[in-house]
Amino acid sequence: MLIKEKFAWKDFIGRIMVIAIPVALQNLLTTTGSMVDTMMIAALGENSVAAVGLCAQYATLIFSCYWGFVGGGMLFFSQYWGAGDEKGICRTYGTTLTFMMIVAAVVTTLAAFKPDFIMRVYTDKPAIQEIGIEYLKVVFPAYPFQIFSMAMSAMLRTTDRVKIPLVGSIVSVFSNILLNWLLIGGNLGFPALGVRGAAIATASAAVINSLTIIVICAVRKYPFLFRFREHFDWNGDSVKEYLKKSFPIICNELFIGIGFMVINMVLGRQPEEAIAALAVFRTLEGLVIAFFSGFSNAASILVGNCVGSGEIRTAYERAKRLVFLCGSVIAIVCIGIFVFHSPILRIMHLSGESFRICTQMIGVYSVAAVIRMCNWTQNDTYRSAGDTKYGTILEIAFQYGMVLPCIILAGQVLHLPTVLVFAAAYIDEPIRLVLMQIHMYSGKWIRPVTPEGRQALPGFMDEKRKK
Fold first, then answer.
1. How many helices, marked H, and strands, marked E, lie in the chain?
2. Would you call 386 helix, strand, or coil by DSSP?
3. pLDDT tens, 352-366?
4. How far apart are CA 198 and CA 130, in angstroms?
């Protein structure tokens, strides 16, 4: 029978904090920078806030396009790191970076040459479109640097260098805030460029982030980032295995990204006050995602390392507990945001109808986010352990079979109040939570890519069946 051992909670929490805190701080800094951006842009009017917020949704779509490659890369990084396979890490980084930069070329070209098309997709309000086009024409150089820094950060985090991306973010965020202050309103003799100034600040900060990470890695002689020859030491089998594992994640992120785009298209056709409220809400949502990202990375690394090294039972026990720890932390964060939402929204220059709509959105999200982040954490855990299909199939099926029809029906057919249209985006989360938990306890998501993990798996599954 499967022997019950006392779980080492102290060691477990300690390992989580080592990974989760720097990642959460990095994302929290980025979100804080976005909040400051919004506060400064708010002085230009609600249409400016709405336009830049919709441009941020294009950035979210870009994230969806390349995150599938990051997810696939982290699967291999974490398991190879657990098995001590340095060449495998370098080879996977080169493969991951190549595919990500292809994405960067496509999305950057689209933003540079077709910004009017992008804005027409997201809203039918001409005044907002005009401001967004101006922003995209300036900000587009940021995208390849943001994607490059994400590739480096993924490898650094999964090889126990979580502080380097954090330092890069600190320098980047403070640079962004300073440049916003100088260029949006025109301070210390600089021209007042408005939205164009915000775009220049964002692009400059992206370059600074990448350069900071590269310099620190060079000074500390990080072993993997500069092994250029090993980065491209590919063969047909290695690329095939990478794409086989990454393809479901790529499909998941791409289809979910398109789904979110449709959701934002529907919300972008609500009244102007609702669009401005949504832009501010997305900034506050970043606070929740900042803390979630810490647990997401902890799940990927702690579980993936154990699977890769053959410690299958430890991976299983850690995974079960990570999801509940994530839910608890996110609940605390959501309660804090809801309690203090009023002064925050006032600082963001929301008032009247936009204030009321944003308050309602925060109320809905305070409940829905706990369930959503638990689902996301479990999916990231499955991916790091080698199962890239189960969560993908569930999320895509529910997104297109339930969520999008409800959103379109509520917003475009029935013309329901904005808060009900917004709430429809989370209608599937409780059902998926139940299904994800059943899969978690089955243990079928453990699918190693290393020899050590594959050798240990049959014994664990035999013990589990005898339980």
1. 19, 0
2. strand
3. 888 999 999 999 999
4. 15
